[in-house]
Specification:
The complex is a heterotrimer of chains A (261), B (330) and C (248).
Chain A (H helix, E strand, L loop, with lengths): L3 E9 L5 E10 L4 E5 L6 H9 L7 E8 L2 E2 L11 E4 L3 H4 L6 H13 L3 H14 L5 H6 L7 H13 L5 E5 L7 H18 L2 E6 L2 H7 L2 E6 L2 E7 H6 L4 H22 L1
Parallel strand pairs in A: 3-8, 3-9, 6-7, 7-8
Antiparallel strand pairs in A: 1-2, 1-4, 4-5, 9-10
Helix pairs in contact in A: 3-4, 3-6, 6-7
Chain B lengths: L1 H27 L31 H36 L2 H16 L2 H12 L3 H28 L2 H8 L4 H37 L11 H8 L8 H27 L14 H4 L39 H8 L2
Helix pairs in contact in B: 1-2, 1-9, 2-5, 2-7, 2-9, 3-5, 4-5, 5-7, 6-7, 7-8, 7-9, 8-9
Chain C lengths: L5 E9 L5 E10 L5 E4 L6 H8 L7 E6 L2 E2 L5 H7 E4 L13 H11 L6 H10 L16 H13 L5 E5 L7 H18 L2 E6 L2 H7 L2 E6 L2 E7 H6 L4 H9 L6
Parallel strand pairs in C: 3-8, 3-9, 6-7, 7-8
Antiparallel strand pairs in C: 1-2, 1-4, 4-5, 9-10
Helix pairs in contact in C: 3-5, 4-5, 5-6
Classes of the chains: A alpha/beta (261), B mainly alpha (330), C alpha/beta (248).
């Protein structure tokens, strides 16, 4: 059975307008799936529905089963089965809490660590996301860290308790290109090492192509095309997917031209 | 949502309207002369005396109407004093260079910490107890709060790119203040002023209660409460009437302000075109997850709320340690 | 060679009591040759842009406009020639003004006469209908807002457009459309662009010249084909290697 199975998911607002409609997909344990879509495609809402974290006023129907739990009717306390990394680490982290304490939170709650064991776990979590100088970082507040460091801290928080599914919602969009490349490598390594399943959400096809295997293209709240990302890029079937691929190719081609000149 | 807001406005206007009608009425008609004690002491409500009489035999309803004049006068006067001084000082502090701004912040914090009562006592010591004194003291205390809020809001607005765009478009600073800064801070400041107006009425009541406000025989609501204190069990109407009037006015003013703010905000008025919310659907990662590149080269203010949506929660942002550092940059 | 419209001449900038944000930057923008300024956050791109926009003055060196140092007396003339587009279309439009008033702002500010026909023409040039003028920013998507910001920048027919990450906040497909729009404006209006960006694909598409800024210094500059085609500085190479590409 799949780790995450979404079947006929719909998300509606108070007026009954469907923001997400009839979305179905599965993520197997250890798999890497992608939701690709642009503004208003419903990709982030889908992720929130999967986590049982839809904002008030929005209701989900259909079926979302995460590690056996029904996330629509009985959303279970998250943190063990699935965790999430958001786009903007500055708003995702508590500005009044040091990085170390934020990472310690879930470790204490979910793994019951205390004292020296907890400190050691925090240090190793920071080491895992390749933050050197772990003691200084652990004592720092989010605003004292760079964008890349903040996102690493957020990832450390998300994976510290070894979730079975990591949801990454545009985790590199706010970052510089070189930092983006490092974060993508980091995510890649972490999910490979621990066999964590990854649900990667982005509007950026080339970014997705670096980390995802199977992907679903969303538009106006519906899945328009699904398949392995390589074949989807090589031979897009839906016109919208083709537009996405063509857009990405435009800038690739421009770079290629300058490279050859 | 907007329907709930317009309900606020209607209810607020109704409550304020009741008090205002009473005040207007008091200028053309009073059931008894304010110093008429013919009704006998502590008469129960009903009959000639709608709310009964106080311990001196004066008609409570008459006093309540006159007290309304003082309450509304205090609210308007204190808001005028506090709003004018506060917004001006806040604007100056918002524009000031770093060290001057830090100094202004400290002064404002001291002023805010300075008890209104003590301030009133100092002013009374100089000029004697009067309604004017009370209004002045309340207004000055209010100015400090308004100035601090204004300063934070101004800094938030100044960090927006449309200010830079206006400068690049050759707009002078005074015109930027008039056309961009003031309209964008106004909703939050106005709601805050309304809140303060409510507090001012309460403050005047406290000052009068302590004998620092309106001197007798003028019946402010606070003074009525004070005088009803000893006989509250025997004649509860004497305390209940001014108490309820206070609540009606304060709640009414707050609801009205809430509704007015939304009326002046284009993003909260009815939407045209498709039923969608382009606000939230317009950017990648639409679920309010922040925006791409806000940590990048832009002169924007990462993590700061849209000034149009700051709302009354504005002052709470002071607790955010990232605020001052991000404001200081670029 | 034609005279540069805008040039930084050995320009440096240090924040009061802080380290230098820029040092020894020399960069010229000549008519018809779009220049890209590439670098990461904290590299000094925004600081350099503020110098170019006349919002701050260099603490060393100078900014030249049409061959002469930029003075306060020439500011209006300068602003008529040089306008700007910013990164975040959610922050660059005043939420309380109608689009017509927003787009007309440079006309009023620079004494060009607020002719509504010019506003309509500018909106048309960026592909927006005339009735846009009566609406408010929140009614528009990110891409549409960026079009409005571009309309405001070109309404007074400037010669140079300083564009600070104009597409990095937008979706990929929208990005393509805005880049196409900028390219067509350059072709049709004798407009030159100084583009600040970390998106090398956009740079390659739009700019003939590229300058790479790292920690306040220009480490490499020249024709884009050379800088991106055969990068000589390790930082440029790292930047280029980091660009995510589609599998062939």
């Amino acid at each position: 059975m799949s780790l995450l199975s979404v079947d006929g998911l719909a998300v509606r607002d108070r007026a009954g307008t469907a923001l997400v409609e009839n979305v179905s997909f599965e993520v197997a344990a250890g798999d890497r799936a992608g939701l690709i879509g642009e503004s208003g495609s419903g990709k982030s809402l889908t992720a929130l529905a999967v986590l049982g974290l839809l904002p008030p006023g929005l209701t989900a129907t259909g079926s979302v089963r995460l590690d056996g739990a029904d996330m629509i009717r009985a959303p279970r306390g998250h943190g063990t089965a699935a965790t999430v990394v958001f786009q903007e680490p500055l708003t995702a982290l508590d500005p009044l809490m040091t990085a170390g304490r934020q990472i310690a939170g879930p470790l204490r709650r979910l793994r019951g660590l205390r004292g020296a064991a907890l400190r050691e776990a925090v240090r190793s979590a920071l080491g895992e996301v390749r933050l050197t100088d772990t003691d200084r970082i652990a004592r720092s507040y989010p605003h004292q860290l760079s964008g890349g460091q903040r996102q690493r801290v957020a990832i450390a928080m998300a994976v510290a308790c070894r979730p079975r599914l990591l949801i990454a919602d545009e985790p590199t969009t706010a970052l510089d290109v070189t930092v983006q490349a490092e974060i993508l490598d980091l995510l890649d390594r972490i999910v490979t090492t621990h066999g964590t399943a990854l649900l990667f959400i982005t509007h950026d096809l080339p970014v997705a192509a670096r980390v995802i295997r199977h992907t679903h293209v969303l538009r106006h709240g519906r899945v328009v095309e699904s398949g392995p990302i390589t074949s989807l890029i090589a031979a897009p079937e839906h016109p919208y997917t083709r537009t996405l691929v063509d857009s990405a190719r435009r800038f690739d081609a421009a770079l290629e031209r300058t490279g050859r000149a | 949502m907007s329907r709930r807001r317009s309900l606020h406005l209607a209810l607020g206007l109704l409550l304020v309207g009741v008090i205002a009608a009473g005040v207007l009425l008091s200028y053309v008609w009073l059931p008894f002369a304010p110093d008429d004690t013919s009704g006998g002491r502590l008469a129960p409500p009903g009959g000639d005396h709608l709310l009964g009489t106080d311990k001196l035999g004066r008609d409570l309803f008459t006093q309540l109407l006159i007290g309304g004049r003082i309450a509304i006068g205090t609210a308007l006067g204190a808001v005028a004093v506090g709003g004018l001084i506060g917004v001006t000082a806040g604007l100056l502090a918002g524009f000031a260079t770093r060290w001057l701004d830090d100094a202004a912040a400290v002064v404002l914090d001291i002023l805010i910490a300075f008890p209104t009562l003590l301030l009133a006592m100092l002013i009374v010591a100089g000029t004697g107890a009067s309604l004017g004194t009370a209004i002045l003291a309340i207004g000055i205390a209010m100015a400090a709060v308004v100035a601090r809020l204004t300063r934070v809001l101004v800094k938030q607005v100044l960090a927006r790119d449309y200010i830079t765009a206006a400068r690049v478009a050759g707009i002078s600073w005074p015109r930027i203040v008039l056309s961009h800064v003031l309209p964008n801070i106004a909703p939050t400041v106005l709601v805050n002023l309304a809140l303060q107006a409510g507090l001012a009425v309460l403050a005047e009541a406290s000052l009068s209660y302590l004998g620092l406000g309106t001197p007798p025989p003028n019946a402010s609501w606070g003074r009525m409460l004070y005088e009803a204190q000893a006989t509250v069990l025997a004649a509860p109407a004497g305390a209940l009437a001014p108490g309820i009037a206070l609540v009606v006015l304060v709640v009414g003013v707050n609801l009205t302000a809430d509704g007015l703010r939304d009326l002046t905000d284009p993003t909260r008025r009815g939407r045209r075109g498709s039923g969608g919310r382009p606000d939230s659907a317009g950017r990648p990662g639409s679920a309010g997850a922040g925006r791409p590149g806000s940590a990048g080269a832009g002169a924007g203010l990462p993590g700061a709320a849209d000034p149009a949506q700051v709302g009354p929660a504005g002052p709470a942002r002071l607790a955010d340690p990232t605020l001052d550092t991000t404001l200081g940059k670029s | 060679m034609t005279e540069p419209i805008l040039a930084a001449v050995d320009a440096g900038y240090a924040y009061r009591g802080g380290a230098a944000a820029l040092s020894g930057v020399s960069l010229a923008v000549s008519p018809g040759r779009n220049v890209a300024l590439v670098g990461e956050s904290g590299a000094g791109k925004t600081t350099l842009l503020r110098l170019f926009l006349g919002l701050a003055r260099p603490t060393s060196g100078a900014i030249h406009f049409d061959g002469a140092p930029l003075h306060r007396q020439r500011m209006r003339q300068y602003r008529r020639a040089v306008q700007a587009v910013f990164q975040d279309p959610y922050s660059s439009l005043d939420p309380r003004h109608r689009i017509g008033r927003i787009v007309a702002e440079p006309l009023r500010g620079l004494g060009l006469g607020a002719d509504p026909a010019r506003v309509t023409a500018a909106l048309d040039a960026v592909g927006l209908p005339a009735d846009t003028a009566g609406r408010y920013p929140h009614e528009f998507s990110g891409g549409q807002r960026q079009r409005i910001a571009i309309a405001r920048a070109v309404v007074g027919n400037p010669r140079l457009l300083l564009a600070d990450e104009p597409v990095s906040a937008l979706d990929l497909t929208t990005r393509v459309r805005i880049v196409d729009l900028l390219a067509s404006l350059c072709a049709e209006r004798d407009l030159t662009i100084l583009l600040v960006s970390h998106d090398l694909g956009v740079v390659a598409e739009l700019c003939a010249e590229t300058a790479v800024l790292e920690r306040g210094r220009l480490v490499e500059q020249g024709p884009t084909s050379e800088v991106l085609g055969a990068p000589s500085h390790p930082y440029t190479r790292r930047l280029l290697a980091s660009v995510p590409r589609l599998p062939a």
